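queue> holo job accepted (NAP)
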Amino acid sequence: METSKAVVVKKFGNYDVLSVEQFEQPALDGRIEVKVEYGGVNFADLYTRQGLMYQKKLPFVLGMECVGTITAVGVESTDLQVGQRVICYDYHCGMYRDVLRVTPDKIYPLPDYITFEQGAAIFVNYLTAYFSIIELGNLKQNQTVLVISCGGGVGWAATQLSKNIDGVTVVGTTSPEKYPEVQKNGVDKTLTLNSDFEKNLAQMCPGGFDLILSTYAGPLYGFLETQLKPLGRIVLIGANNLIQNENKLSVLTFLKGWWTTKNVRLEDLIVYNRVAAGLHLGTLIDKDPERVRDALNKIFEMVKEQKLRVKIHEVLPMERVVEATKLLAQRKNVGKVLISMRTEK
Ligand SMILES: NC(=O)c1ccc[n+]([C@@H]2O[C@H](COP(=O)([O-])OP(=O)(O)OC[C@H]3O[C@@H](n4cnc5c(N)ncnc54)[C@H](OP(=O)(O)O)[C@@H]3O)[C@@H](O)[C@H]2O)c1
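queue> job finished
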């Protein structure tokens, strides 16, 4: 049996369920082998490890995205070649390995002008932000957007994509110590999700928003909807409220989070001229992979033209994956956290 070093989840639970060890590798036949450099840490790693994302068969390898170089090709007809630099993505996980074997549909060539570190921070964050802000959000000149968690990986990308549109005002929530950095990234007005949030937001932006990017389900979502201008759009991409710095979540807590959100009233959509949308990057790729590849190429071009500036918060070795995911759960990151699979020479 062939193996590679991997971040393994053997049972669902707290941080201590993660281990770094040799884990079974599928055969090369029908797959591409990649020597991995970095993995991009996502908030979803927290949900997945706790068993909240979807039913996964245990044990499994964590991680949705990574970058590296192709070392072997086990597929007959493909343009992919040994030596090529690539991004790999699979929302079903399996990416945190030092050597990875995946089917070609999980691979995206990485242009030479993008470093491995940048590449590991682009796929999930920038594509999610792109489809939320540009496609579903349809953000236009001189409009106002509210970005919840503007200092996080997706929020950082969403701010930059918004500021590429003339005259857009970005209002962002984040922890107070992150204000200076998010303002440098383009956020015009900052506030914090504390007990005064609703009052502060109404005072700061009495005219409301054309677009809201929400990472919060639950009661806050209901309030945010009311802050939309006529013809305003709210795009829901996650449920950060379900993670309270790693307190164990019961299935009931999880479901409660969604139940309290599910009541988007159809009548209100009409009466208040609102659009309520949702995005799941993984299922979008399943249904329309070409559209995602096109969007990725647009993002690469914008990086080349220096219209987008990828920010890495910290790179930690694979063995310190627990610390890496804790940076997100404890609200410490500004931009993207990476884990490194590099073997130092
Ligand atoms: N639908 C999709 O396809 C898709 C794809 C990617 C990501 N997402 C979602 O988008 C959100 C952002 O993802 P990301 O990977 O970029 O993560 P991230 O924003 O970098 O996550 C960490 C940050 O979230 C903020 N946060 C807010 N509430 C939190 C809580 N209860 N516990 C911990 N941190 C909290 C913290 O910043 P502040 O408190 O300073 O704001 C923290 O630094 C997540 O909900 C994720 O699931 C969805």
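queue> The chain has eleven helices and 16 strands.
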